[in-house]
Amino acid sequence: MIRVEPHRRWRVNATKTIDLPLPASVVWGQMRDLRRFITMDPLHAKVRDEVPTGRAIPAVGTRLVIEHRLAGLRVHRRSRLLRWREGRGYAVSDLSRRGNHVGFPHICEYEIMPVTERSSRLRLSARGRWTATWMPVWLVRLWLLWVMRATGLRVENALLAARDQINPAGQDTGARLSRPAPRP
């Protein structure tokens, strides 16, 4: 399920929920690699520490750089790990280097919740302020729907592929791979 809500004053809340035939602990095992996991957003090409720390798991407050790519354009945005809940999820900021009030400042959240012993629900969200106010609301909504759908498909496919590497026979899961995510 995808929900995109543009609000007054150009606040947006985009959420994608994915039901997975995987235990939350298996999903979390993939999510823990934050730098790799958040690059499943089709706009996030690469994530690195602003100042290398050598830590596999960044500490809350760690400054990150997210390289964004779209249609051959590359932009580096600044980020910070805002929250880390072991086994549950995390949140990172995604801000323009030009300032906190330009270039769609937003927070990306990733949260895994167990549904049963063998299934879970992953919630991806982007909340922030849309700054390209010259765009019609319907186009903003369409753009965010595409980003959330593409991210969701990439995440789901990667998680199910990881499951298949762990359990090549696919015993008792009944899961299927989604079609490939559309590219920008």
Any overview of this molecule?
The chain has 3 helices and 8 strands; from the N terminus they run ββααββββββα. It is of the alpha+beta class and 184 residues long. A hairpin with a 2-residue loop joins β4 (63-70) and β5. The protein starts with a strand and ends in an 18-residue tail after the last helix. Mean pLDDT is 85; it is low at 172-184.
In short:
It contains 3 helices and 8 strands; from the N terminus they run ββααββββββα. With 184 residues, the chain is α+β, with helices and mostly antiparallel strands.
Strand/helix succession = EEHHEEEEEEH
Number of distinct beta strands: 8
Q: What is the fold-level CATH name, i.e. the topology? A: Alpha-D-Glucose-1,6-Bisphosphate, Chain A, domain 4
Number of domain units: 1
Residue share in helices? 10-25%
How many individual helices?
Answer: 3
Low-confidence stretches: 172-184
CATH top level label: Alpha Beta
Structural shape: globular
